[in-house]
Amino acid sequence: MASKINQADFIDINSILNGYRKSWYWFVISIVFFGLLGYVFVKTHNTEYSVHANLLIDDDEANPLLSSMDLGGLFGSSTKVDDEVFVVSSHSLLRDVVKQLGINETHLIKEGLLEKSLAYPQYPVQIKNDNDVADTLTTTLMFKVSVDKKLNADVKVLAKGDKILQLKDVKLPADVKTPYGTFVLDTTQYYPAGESLSTVIYLSGYGASAEQLAKSIDIDLVNRKSNVIQMAIESENVAYGEDILNTLIMLYNRKGVSDKTQQGEKTLLFIDDRIRLLANDLDDAESAIQAYKQQHGIIDVEAEAIYQTERRAELDKRLLEAEADAAIIKMATEFVNNPDNAFELVPVTMTNEALVKTITAYNELLLSRIDLMNNAKNGNAALRNLDEQIAAMRKNVATSAQKAYENAMIPVRELRAEMAKTTGKLGNVPTQEREYINMKRQQEVKQALYLFLLQRREETAMMVANTKAKAIIIDEAYALNDPISMQPKLAMLLFLFIGVLVPLVLVYFKNKLRTKFDTCQEVERMVDMPVLGEIGIDKSGSHVVVGASDTSSSAELFRLLRTNLLFILNDTSDKVVLMTSTNSGEGKSFISINLAMSLSLLGKKVLLVGMDIRKPKLSEYLGVNAKFGVTQYLSSDKISIGDMIVNDPRYGDLDIILSGPIPPNPAELLASKKVDEFFEQLRGMYDYIIVDTAPVGLVSDTFTLDRVADATIYVCRANYTKRSDLNFANTVYEQHRLHKLSLVVNGTAMKKTYGYGNK
Description:
Layout: H1 2-5, H2 13-22, H3 24-44, E1 49-57, H4 81-88, H5 91-101, E2 105-111, E3 114-117, E4 125-128, H6 131-136, E5 141-147, E6 152-159, E7 162-171, E8 174-178, E9 181-187, E10 197-203, H7 206-216, E11 217-221, E12 228-235, H8 238-296, H9 301-308, H10 313-337, H11 353-375, H12 381-424, H13 431-465, E13 471-479, H14 488-513, H15 520-526, E14 531-536, H16 553-568, E15 576-581, H17 588-600, E16 606-610, H18 618-622, H19 630-635, H20 641-644, E17 655-657, H21 666-670, H22 673-685, E18 688-692, H23 701-705, E19 711-717, H24 723-734, E20 741-748
Helix pairs in contact: 3-14, 5-7, 5-8, 8-13, 9-13, 10-12, 10-13, 11-12, 16-17
């Protein structure tokens, strides 16, 4: 049993194809529906392309000529490429791109019932507004514009779906005053002259447009060890994508140059201020020397001083260098300790390497703060954290500068002490000359520092003049030849394929999941017992479809069923055939009547007996009545078989015995010996006896009558009988509970008969 039933799980091509044929209209509906979807998709979606650009972040941004000049990290020798990726994709930079290109507008035009995006930048109608309006616009405005041939326009403005303004028949250009600001509506060079059109324009603020742009641009490093940044954007318009990437690169480089130039200019201002102070000190020193000469009548004191200090020249030189370095460190210390310079870059011109590194790190924090202020909003947590780091770092710089100054003063004091010893040996040098020499030395110190700052100023000025962009453009924006979106023809084919696939899958799973069958072929795969035949649905509504001259499809199917039954009843003694089913309503009474009629047409003596004594149907279906029935015969000895037989002229030579009244004890009545005697007499009277019995799935009556039967026909009905009921029928067959059990499939779809059966 199990092996046969399980075959239902295997794919049956004919059954599947039959299911598809029945559901042909779903294929038509699905293909039409998805075809329309494909058409809408093709009309509303343009072909998209992938646009790319590649940048190399120069890690050594300094001019080779100035690479040895250390200005405290003002121009950075080690660019953090990850930070540059953030800068390139920053909101402020993308906002500038939107503002530069004016891409905070979306233009749509109607083509029939559909709306299509217009190609950038060929917009027939434009909206002009002050940058301040777009900067402060927090919602997207929708402008519905209809322009006639005379350039008169109807304008409707909506915000968040609500109408806020409507203008009728205004001449273009026209001022459109809204609660969000005043806009100027005008045509462009792309407006088709002498034609009318309707367009919809969505206007967003720069900030919102920048956020949308950020979602569409992919910016990242080639790999973690590379300084190359890849940029990509997908766009329906190649020119649009190229303009965005090229503009983004241009603004990024411009910002980098501007930042570095600004930093250099601040350094120049600091150096210029120090040069002015030193120039005044130097003038004062030279004036004091001149006055001293005049006061003491010293004529050639320089030659005399050189002669007297020949032995200490080296010491003097070293002392000058040490004092100059200490003075520079002192200036830096004073600059750091000045509260007015809290967030100013600290210029570094000293030779102390430790202090240079400290100030360089401090300046890098300040540069990071400048970038963050350009991109972050007020109250930004990162900015607060950075300010705290800068404050702490400034204290560290001040401490380091103070220590450096103290360390720088150590050699100064040592050299001065040694100089004092040397000076003591010059006791014969006149006091005036010694005073003059001291004054001269002070003047030389200031002069040396002055010249040093002049040199640094020139170097800084050269650096500012030679400032270059951070990014080297490897590839300007370019589009790949092949589009990334689906081609219209391919998209249409895909939608049509889906239109075929959807009902294909649904019908398949519907067939796999259904609990009932609809064809005789399905039944044959599911059961082990022989299938005598199938009876199609008869639309006449009559319970008797077999007649002497009837050539209908139904009559022909019953003739075929009769032939197969006679093949089973191969012994002349085989006369009694039971008709049963699993449940009521499967058509066993209908089959019983018409099979009996078909047998009677062979000229045989045929009897139709109603033994479904619980729910009889023969009297109703045949429209006949009898004084006595089977139940009365079995309950009484006064009734004979002849008293029960009904012969209606409508049904030819067919004899009928009805079931009679429903008894209180049907099971016991059918088990009585009188049933055996009843059928023994009938065998002697008739060639064939068709017995309409009760459903075996509900009661045991048919099993009780099996003792008098020669064969049993089990009736099932398409789209009514459950597969589990066939499993029960298979069990009955395998257990041999009914004689010569075979199956008839009722209620199948009528088939073409190739001329046989003309109704």
